[in-house]
């Protein structure tokens, strides 16, 4: 559903597995504008939560209200890379109006400047690029899309510690007013978020426990 306000709200949300069993017990969440929320815990439960908010997991109860009048971007663990030119792969899913100079600059900002001369090259890019480069390309897309709300699933799990620091620092500097929800099992990510939701297994399903963190 679309919220009547510019907020994302999970209201009485309970998520089920495909067989109807309860995967995540009922909870509510309404992050404020500019908040950064880390979500970690049982992998199957966090994956279903990401898919539910992205609108591709239909099993459960409650309401997911998307912010009215705001752009929201769901960034999966591995970005989908369509066959075609590299420029089109970076622009995919909403960056069609960006010219090649903007695409090249975005690649440079995420540490992929070496790929800029290949923008007009056609290839199957998921085979051409390693998983760490694919994740950096996902951040380049964010720079082109400029969303108000960002929801990410394991966005840095293929990066080393320095690469993770670079991408998360870039995210903070480029999107100081965006609301960011990050699913990650890497607890070092706590330093980049102000709230932490842990999905802990209890009586056969995951329950949500929250910790308030000091702002990064």
Task: Compose a concise summary of this entry.
The chain is of the alpha/beta class.
Low-confidence stretches: none
Give the overall form: globular
SSE string: EEEHEEEHHEHHEHEEE
Major sheet summary line:
6 strands, mixed
Q: What is the number of helices?
A: 6
Strand proportion, as a percent range, falls in 25-35%
* Total strand segments: 11
**How much helix, percentage-wise, in residues?**
25-40%
Radius of gyration: 18 Å
Give the helices and strands, then pairings.
Layout: E1 9-16, E2 22-29, E3 36-41, H1 43-54, E4 60-65, E5 72-75, E6 84-85, H2 86-91, H3 100-109, E7 122-123, H4 125-128, H5 131-145, E8 149-153, H6 161-174, E9 179-183, E10 195-202, E11 205-212
Parallel strand pairs: 3-9, 3-10, 5-8, 8-9
Antiparallel strand pairs: 1-2, 1-4, 6-7, 10-11
Describe the model:
With 216 residues, this protein is α/β, with parallel strands linked by helices. Helices cover 28% and strands 29% of the residues. The chain has helices spanning 43-54, 86-91, 100-109, 125-128, 131-145, 161-174, and strands spanning 9-16, 22-29, 36-41, 60-65, 72-75, 84-85, 122-123, 149-153, 179-183, 195-202, 205-212.
């Amino acid at each position: 559903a679309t919220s009547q306000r510019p907020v994302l709200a999970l209201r009485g949300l309970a998520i089920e597995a495909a067989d109807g069993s309860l995967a995540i017990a009922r909870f509510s969440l309404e992050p404020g504008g500019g908040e950064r929320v880390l979500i970690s815990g049982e992998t199957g439960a966090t994956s279903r939560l990401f898919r539910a908010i992205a609108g591709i997991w239909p099993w459960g109860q409650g309401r997911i209200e998307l912010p009215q009048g705001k752009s929201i971007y769901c960034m999966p663990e591995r970005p989908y890379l369509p066959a075609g030119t590299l420029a089109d792969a970076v622009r995919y899913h909403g960056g069609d109006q960006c010219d090649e100079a903007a695409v090249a600059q975005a690649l440079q900002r995420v540490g992929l400047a070496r790929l800029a001369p290949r923008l007009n090259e056609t290839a199957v890019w998921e085979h051409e690029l390693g998983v760490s480069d694919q994740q950096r390309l996902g951040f380049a897309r964010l720079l082109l899309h400029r969303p108000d709300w960002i929801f990410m699933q394991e966005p840095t799990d293929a990066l080393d510690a320095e690469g993770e620091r670079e991408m998360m620092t870039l995210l903070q500097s480029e999107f100081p007013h965006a609301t960011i929800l990050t699913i990650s099992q890497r607890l070092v990510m706590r330093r980049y978020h102000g709230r932490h939701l842990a999905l802990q297994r209890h009586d056969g399903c995951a329950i949500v426990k929250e910790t308030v963190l000091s702002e990064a």
